Amino acid sequence: MNVLEMNNIKKSFNNHTLHVLQDISLNVAEGEVVAIIGPSGSGKSTLLRCATLLTEMDSGELLYLGDYAAKNDENGNSVYADKAALKKIRSHFGLVFQNFNLFPHYSVLKNLTDAQISVLGRSKEEAKQRAEVLLEKMGLADKGDAYPCQLSGGQQQRVAIARALAMDPKILFFDEPTSALDPELTGEILKVIRQLAEENMTMVIVTHEMAFARDVADRVIFMDGGVIVEQGDPQQVINHPQEERTRQFLSRFAQN
């Protein structure tokens, strides 16, 4: 079953003069890990923002578990579902940002429990138990009373992942989750994501970590210029790309 379906997505900015996404379609099956790679400005993050309802599409369809978040009207423009339907759909996904986006004035524990209580309707005790299980899983069992400013970047990102998981999403999106981290801290985040993949968590990961994408993803998508240039088996796409543009990108990447 597809957790996510995106059909013929188009998105422009600057009064339709800047075409960021050009007729992109993407399905993600339950338990699948999809890595999206490509140069800066290729549309990767905009695609994630459209998928997570942070940016409205100009046209195209967006579905979660078969329910429409948006579909085209008779003029070919995306029309979004009503507020109640979108609230339900938002409960299906979690998003981990580049820069953590933790509430700085909340403790780690409160960062994890607040939405559970207000959105999912869990009791304080239930939310706390779920938070503590996830913090232990992230190697942060002793950090519940700490504040984000007291944590390293890697620890903050692990808290952000735990916060997303606390909402029991059907699919988790990562927007370059290691880009704000020192190389030394990158490994601990990749280890967490690798563990989630082993647990069959459905994920879409925008990343510049090529070896990680090759080793962990079930499918790699290479984007450039707002289109999907190439996609397929990670070993094939990264080690033996078929398209010249993919080869150019990966050869430059290998040199850096």
Structure summary:
The protein has 256 residues and is α/β, with parallel strands linked by helices. The chain has helices at 44-51, 83-90, 108-118, 124-137, 153-166, 183-198, 210-216, 234-239, 244-255, and strands at residues 2-13, 18-29, 33-37, 59-64, 67-72, 78-80, 93-96, 171-175, 203-206, 219-224, 227-232. The chain has a 6-stranded mixed β-sheet, sandwiched between helices. The chain has a 5-stranded antiparallel β-sheet with strand order 2-1-4-5-6.
Written account of the structure:
The protein is an alpha/beta fold and 256 residues long. Helices cover 38% and strands 27% of the residues. The chain is built from 9 helices and 11 strands. The protein has helices at 44-51, 83-90, 108-118, 124-137, 153-166, 183-198, 210-216, 234-239, 244-255, and strands at 2-13, 18-29, 33-37, 59-64, 67-72, 78-80, 93-96, 171-175, 203-206, 219-224, 227-232. Strand 4 and strand 5 form a beta hairpin. Helix 3 packs parallel to helix 5.
